[in-house]
């Protein structure tokens, strides 16, 4: 049974199962797809999985074309979107045609934006191939690209018609990408799903895909996608509860900014951000020391960083936090855990508490 | 009392009143606007009305910036959208900031698309300055730009927060633009609103703005906007009844295509398309000859064309119709009148009936 993202007439299923890549054709038929399909991917991913998806569609009578974009976050911009539009135009995609994103969050965000805006919206299907895309980017309808001035400044809310997850594709994912995705998985455990947290804790090793039993990995994906689906179903456009997903991201973003998105991956920064947020929660008396050290243990087990590199400028991080603050014209907002499986928002964290959490993040 | 476009939480008012331009500030406050405002316009329109709007906003405490784009349909493309994004970035527009479109359909479609996609959607207000934009383009949430391959291929559905119509601005509108807008007004009379049709018929002269009494013009705007609002409220994304708005547009588009959007304005082509559609309806026994000639009389009164220029290639028009048909993979679709104030869709028009209608459009 697929997980359902419930959004009235925009509801859609998330299929999680090994070999689902081979069933792309059936699944597309199930959701009413027909005619033309444009697969958007990058050279690495397409080399691994392109043929499987292509064949699965062709054999069921779809008219399949491909659009292979250069790999990398630095190509996530409007110029690359124009390349997708060129393909849409050339193959004369129609309202009822489908764009399939076969790739990580970068491909998914771009293909989704193109699907949202070609003919004011055509069918869109996500086949996420990174752990992060599976549990996060592919679910919830945020699409878009970067602008010279900042990340994801241009975009649209546009829900896919389906998300197709084949856990097997993770076997070729670079280990650092896998670990980054695990940061978001841990996040779901802390803010929402204690069963997921327990499942993660019960694993002897978490730091590589191959250490996980197939069934456990599927359960982890299931809990994670279910959590994101539930939250998005309750708050499609980020007016309320969806803010919980920013757990670990306040300080995480500041770290990414200060290190210019170069030193840490997103997941690594989020891991550090979660440790800092946990520390703040402990200082404020929201959270127990014990649960904070369980969180830290889990992060360490994944081999995600638990300390900031020592040469980092704490003042720069605080400045970056305040820049964010200026943008929302208010105080810095944090999502803080109360117990495993529950978190809440506050903008009442005293500066010295933030300072202390940052100090601990370096020193200890 | 404003007209309301009813779309649940996306509902919005259409204000029609002389001098409403001067009240832009109050109206923006009414709909919860605050902080930064970016006015998007073109040099001609901004010269006439920019200062009024600018001052109205500044005096009420808004932080106002402007983005003046080159005039003309040929600039309605992604490159120009990037210019708007540059302004959004430079002035650091926030989620709750507002983009105001001050202009005709070209400005409205572009500013709307930028508002739809900057930060995945910020506030948007339409101040239409052409008759066409007032009664059509500014209402209903279609935004977008052209692509080398075709018109309006890139876009989004994105509703404004308000539409502010000041009939006085029409006094500077070139007469040909005014008449083009009147084609859509007549369309509403034929497909939906008999009172509008009667009101138009009761005017001794229709061919210039200055012939209309202020009150009659306001009523004409009111009926027209009300019609579009009602239809859009029932069918936001063009799955059903909104197709009625294509009355006159099937053959109208074919005429525009064949004459490469150069010889006729959109409204002129639609006027010819309505006459042809009316003729088809008469041939099929859907409509009375008498009402068809009343429609033709009205079109003539506006000084819109009632015959095709003689050197046009009928076969090319039929080809253009069939290209459209290939795109929707079916027969050519027509909206045909049944009586004044009522129309319906059909894809059952025999080719010879179309042929006959086109012959009549040239010869008569
Ligand atoms: N839309 C959302 O809600 C949302 C949420 C989070 C992140 N994002 C976006 O997602 C992007 C990051 O996504 P990501 O972490 O998936 O990175 P990514 O898409 O850049 O992929 C990471 C790398 O892994 C490679 N790769 C992907 N799948 C592979 C596989 N199965 N085997 C081998 N190599 C593979 C890719 O080629 C790439 O080099 C960012 O742009 C971020 O803004 C979006
Ligand atoms: N979004 C929709 O639902 C929708 C519907 C219909 C048409 N459109 C689009 O609208 C566009 C056509 O719009 P339009 O007919 O308003 O043309 P336009 O926006 O090009 O304006 C026509 C001309 O009039 C000038 N002008 C505008 N207002 C003026 C004023 N008050 N005084 C003096 N000059 C003025 C403009 O500078 C321009 O040169 C097309 O791109 C079409 O695709 C959109
Ligand atoms: Zn994240
Ligand atoms: Zn029209």
UniProtKB/TrEMBL annotation, chains A, B:
It catalyses: 7-phospho-2-dehydro-3-deoxy-D-arabino-heptonate = 3-dehydroquinate + phosphate. InterPro entries: Dehydroquinate_synthase, DHQ_synth_AroB, DHQ_synth_fam, DHQS/DOIS_N, DHQS_C. Its EC number is 4.2.3.4. GO terms for molecular function: 3-dehydroquinate synthase activity; metal ion binding; nucleotide binding. Residues 67-179 form the 3-dehydroquinate synthase N-terminal domain. It comes from the Bacteria. One of its GO terms (biological process) is aromatic amino acid family biosynthetic process. Binds 1 divalent metal cation per subunit. Can use either Co(2+) or Zn(2+). Keywords: Amino-acid biosynthesis, Aromatic amino acid biosynthesis, Cobalt, Cytoplasm, Lyase, Metal-binding, NAD, Nucleotide-binding, Zinc. Pathway: Metabolic intermediate biosynthesis; chorismate biosynthesis; chorismate from D-erythrose 4-phosphate and phosphoenolpyruvate: step 2/7. Zn(2+) binds at residues 184, 249, 266. It is found in: Cytoplasm. Belongs to the sugar phosphate cyclases superfamily. Dehydroquinate synthase family. This is 3-dehydroquinate synthase. It comes from Gloeomargarita lithophora Alchichica-D10. The gene is aroB.
């Amino acid at each position: 049974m697929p997980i359902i993202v419930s959004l009235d007439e925009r509801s859609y299923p998330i299929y999680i199962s090994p070999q689902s890549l081979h069933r792309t054709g059936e699944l597309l038929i199930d959701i009413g797809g027909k005619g033309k399909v444009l697969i958007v991917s990058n050279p690495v991913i397409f080399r691994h999985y392109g043929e499987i998806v292509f064949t699965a569609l062709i054999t069921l009578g779809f008219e399949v074309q491909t659009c292979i974009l250069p790999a990398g976050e630095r190509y996530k911009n409007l110029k690359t979107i124009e390349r997708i539009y060129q393909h849409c135009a050339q193959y004369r995609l129609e309202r009822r045609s489908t764009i399939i994103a076969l790739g990580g969050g970068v491909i998914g965000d771009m293909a989704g934006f193109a699907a949202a805006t070609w003919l004011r919206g055509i069918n869109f299907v996500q086949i996420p191939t990174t752990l992060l895309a599976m549990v996060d980017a592919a679910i919830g309808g945020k699409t878009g690209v970067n602008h010279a001035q900042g990340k994801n400044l241009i975009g649209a809310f546009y829900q896919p018609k389906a998300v197709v997850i084949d856990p097997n594709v993770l076997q070729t994912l670079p280990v650092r990408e896998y670990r980054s995705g695990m940061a978001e998985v841990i996040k779901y455990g802390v803010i929402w799903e204690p069963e997921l947290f327990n499942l993660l804790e019960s694993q002897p090793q978490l730091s590589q895909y191959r250490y996980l039993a197939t069934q456990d990995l599927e359960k982890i994906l299931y809990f994670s996608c279910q959590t994101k689906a539930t939250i998005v179903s309750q708050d499609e456009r980020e007016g309320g509860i969806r803010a919980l997903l920013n757990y670990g991201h306040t300080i995480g973003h500041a770290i990414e900014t200060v290190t210019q998105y170069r030193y840490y991956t997103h997941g690594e920064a989020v891991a550090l951000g979660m440790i800092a947020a946990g520390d703040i929660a402990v200082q404020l008396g929201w959270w127990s020391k014990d649960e904070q050290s369980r969180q830290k243990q889990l992060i360490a087990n994944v081999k995600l960083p638990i300390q900031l590199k020592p040469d980092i400028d704490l003042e720069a991080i605080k400045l970056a936090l305040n820049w964010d603050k200026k943008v929302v014209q208010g105080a810095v907002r944090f999502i803080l855990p109360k117990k495993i499986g529950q978190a809440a928002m506050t903008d009442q964290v005293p500066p010295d508490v933030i300072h202390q959490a940052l100090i601990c993040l370096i020193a200890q």
